[in-house]
Amino acid sequence: MGASITYDEVAIKLNEWYSAIKKDQITDAEFLKADSLLDFRHDLMLSYVGN
User: Fold this and answer.
1) Does 20 map to a domain?
2) By CB atoms within 10 Å of each CB, which of 5, 38, 47, 51 scores lowest?
3) Structurally, how many domains does the chain consist of?
């Protein structure tokens, strides 16, 4: 099992994604979504299942 992901790390990634959308930086938002958010959420859920 990988390292746990803290709430703060998730909040930071979500904030980066949301900020990119609000600034009309759609390409950046898509990259953040594809690169980080799904992986982060997946790993977060796995960390809860493993506990």
Assistant:
1) yes
2) 51
3) 1
Residue 20 domain boundaries: 7-50
Residue 1 lies in a domain: no
Listed residue (12, 6, 51, 48) closest to 32, CA to CA: 12
**Which amino acid belongs to residue 12?**
I
What does pTM read for this prediction? 0.60
Q: Which residues contact 2 (CB under 8 A, 6 or more apart)?
A: 43, 46, 47
- Local confidence pLDDT in tens for the 51 residues of the chain: 456 778 888 888 889 988 988 999 988 888 887 767 667 777 777 777 765
